Amino acid sequence: MSLVRLPSWAYTLIAILPALAFVLTPTIQDPALRIGSGAVVLVWLVAFTLYAWVRLDEPSREAHKFAWFWGGAPGLVVIQLVAVGAIASPLLAEPVAAFVATQSAAGATPEGGFFVGVFSAAIFQIAGYGLVWTCWWLSKRAGR
Q: In Å, how far from its chain's centre is CA 103?
């Protein structure tokens, strides 16, 4: 019996689906079980992501590197400017504090602010990456 070699995108899905299930399920109450299952999901995610990277061809690798550098980094800069603006400007601070308060049952807490900050940074980086990655591939296809 031989193993079937799947394309890179299939290994990426195999890597991401358990992580999404872990994030989207209700919080596990037992701390030891929560940490243990989080560690298992993290190892799974890293292992299959690395295998997906190995299966990529060179143009695809270049597209990902280019998109993370030119899309993910500016996305992080944008969210950092929002964070500085939220501290320095009352005009931006009030809507940001109101949004943080909606993300926590106890109102605006430091934990809620940390959660919103971390996930906002990730969302902005992924949005920038996706935009640049799409433009990179469209620019390569347009030359044909």
A: 18
- The pair phi, psi for residue 92, each rounded to 5°, is -95, -25
CB neighbours of residue 62 within 10 Å:
13
What is the amino acid identity at position 16? I
**15 to 19, 60, 133: CA distances (angstroms):** 7, 18, 20
Tokens of 124: 């902005």
Six-digit token string for 63: 């597209």
Residue whose token pair is 């690395």: 50
Look up the pTM and report it: 0.70
Which residues lie below 8 Å from residue 53, measured CB to CB, with a gap of 6+?
Answer: 8, 61
| pLDDT, tens only, 33-85 | 878 888 888 888 888 888 888 888 888 899 889 999 999 999 999 988 888 88
